[in-house]
Amino acid sequence: MITEHTVCRACGSKSLFNVADFGEQALANSFRKSPSQEGEPRYPLVFKMCSKCWLGQLSHIVPKEELYSYYPYVTSTSKTMAEHLDNVCQNVLGRGKQNASPLTVEVGSNTGLLLKLFKERQARVHGFEPAKNLAEIANCNGVQTTPDFFNQATAAQFVAVYGRADLVLGRHVLAHIDSWRGFFYALDTLCQKHALVVLEVPYLVELLDGFQFDTVYHEHLSYVSLKAVEALLEDSPFYVQDLDRTAIHGGSITFYIRRRHQRQLRVSEMVEHIRILEESRKIGEEEIWKSWSAGVRELRDEIGEQIRLVWDSGVAGYGASAKGSMLLQYCGLTEQKLIKFVVDSTAAKQGRFMPGTNIPILAEEALLKEDVRYALILAWNFAKEIKRKNEAFKGKWIVPIPQVRID
Ligand code: TMP
Ligand code: ZN
Fold first, then answer.
1. Which of 31, 71, 76, 361 best tests ligand 1's pocket when mutated (most atoms within 8 Å of CB)?
2. How many whole angstroms separate alpha carbon 170 and alpha carbon 148?
3. How far apart are CA 291 and CA 289, in angstroms?
4. Chain centroid to CA 271: how far?
5. Whose CA is nearest to atom 16 of ligand 1?
6. Cα angle vertex 358, ends 353, 360, to 5°?
7. What pLDDT, on a 0 to 100 scale, did the predictor assign at position 350?
C-alpha cells in the first residue's frame, strides 16, 4: 500500500512545499516482459521541499518490499564506475587510524563490487542487500552478504556474531531509506567508537543546477543537502566531519560521518564551504524551485519536440537506466514509433520493456545493427564513455540533460 508522506524525515517539520508534479508513473525499475498495458501499476510522483532543512522528498512512498525484493540494477562495471569505486576504496582506507583489517560493512551492497576492493586490501567485509538476486551473486563472488534490509534488528544480529564495524559504507542508499532516524539508530548499534560512516548520495545542488528532473523517481525518497543531514544528526551521537564532491551519477556528495566524541577530529573546511554554498543558493526558497520547475517543463517539451522532429529517421535510446524510464514517461516518449528500442548492457533488462512504455530493450550491439540515425543517451551520466565505445556509430547523439545537445 502506497503511503502519503507529510512530515520531513530529517527535521520533523510539516513545512513541505510542492515543487513539481510529474504525474502518475510506472516504477522506474519494473522492467516487464510485455509492453505496458492498462492496469500496469502507476503511482503519483510529486517532488516537495522542506523549507526548514532543505531536504527534497517525494509525496508518496511505495513499500520497500515492492521495490527491492528483486532488483534488476547492478552496479555498473563501466570504466567510469571502476575508477570511482577504486578512488572510494583508497580514500576511505586512507582516512583515520584503522587496524590492518578493518571490519567493513556496506549497506545496499548490490553485487559486492565495492566490498570486493576492500577485501582485496585485507579488510574483513560484509554486505546487507535486500534484493535476493543480488545478494546471491555477491555471496557467489566471495563477498559475504546478508540478504535482508539493514535495520536495528539485523544490525544487532550482525554485531552479536562479528562485533562492531570500523567502516560503514552506503553508496546511493540514503535517498532510498524512509526512516532516517531508524537508519541512524541502527548505525549506532553497528559502529564501534572510532568508526567512520561514508554515505554517497546524489547532491541536491546538482539536481537544481543541472535540471536533473529524471533523477526524481519512486526509489529516491530524498534529495539530499548538507543542511538536511545536519538537521537530522543534531540530537544524534553522530556529526558530519568531512565532505567530498564527485562527478559520479551526474554529481554526488559524500558524507564522512563520525561519532561526536571524536570531535578532536576537526570539522573540515569543506563542510563550512558547502554550508555557505547552500546558503548562497537559497535552496530552501520557493522562488528558486518555481523557476526550476518552469525550466524542467521547458526542457521536457524540448526533448519531446526534438524526438518528434527526427523519429522517422529512427531513434534508439542508450541505457535502460531508472532515470531513462522516468524521462521517457515524463516526456511522453512511450511509443515504439518514436523510440524504436533502448539498448543496455544488463542481461536482466534485455528482452524486457521500458516501464510504462511499449519500447523493447535490446543488447548494445543493436545500435549498430539496426537502422537508426539518432541515439538518445538516457544514461547521460556515462555519455562520454558511451560515445567513446561506440565510435562506429555513424548517427547523431542526443544528450537530453542539462539541455538538449545534438552532435
Ligand atoms: P545508472 O546511470 O543508473 O548507473 O544506469 C546506467 C544504465 O546504463 C545501466 O542499466 C547500464 C547501462 N549502460 C550500458 O548499457 N552501457 C554502458 O556503456 C554504460 C556505461 C551503461
Ligand atoms: Zn526538514
1. 76
2. 15
3. 5
4. 22
5. 345
6. 40
7. 97
